[in-house]
Amino acid sequence: MNSTFGRGALFASVIALAAVTGGAFAQPAPPPPPAADAAGPAHHHFDPAKMRERMAEHLRAVLQLQPGQDAALDAFLDAMKPPEGMREHHNQNMA
């Protein structure tokens, strides 16, 4: 009978220790997302022309393009442009 009591006490102490130390591993809650109507640095409007220019500059640098290759780069960026109406379609799906 003594060994049964000893095992039960050991099991209870392990459970109690796990319950006490389990709180140490808890993570704080993430901050709430900003309000949808709050205009701030996180809220910006997408400018396709600015995006295209950034992409062109990036490709020129990464691919080490020569000035004579600008026509080919423009053709590539035109081919990568999303179809007309895609932005409205995307906005409808997000709403």
For the structure shown, list the relevant keywords.
95 residues, 4 helices, 0% strand, mainly alpha
Protein architecture, described:
There is one protein chain. With 95 residues, the protein is an all-alpha fold. Helices cover 60% and strands 0% of the residues. It has four helices and no strands. It has helices spanning 2-22, 48-63, 70-80, 86-94. The longest helix has 21 residues, at 2-22. The model has no long low-confidence stretch (mean pLDDT 79).
Summarize the structure.
Helices cover 60% and strands 0% of the residues. It is mainly α.
The helicity comes to 55-70%
Classify the secondary structure makeup into a structural class.
mainly alpha
Discrete helix count: 4
Unreliable stretches (pLDDT < 50, length at least 5) are: none
The strand count comes to 0
Cα Rg: 30 Å
Shape: elongated
Question: What proportion strand?
Answer: under 5%
Q: For the terminal residues, how far apart are their CA atoms?
A: 67 Å
Q: What is the typical, i.e. mean, pLDDT?
A: 79
Sheet bearing the most strands, described?
A: none
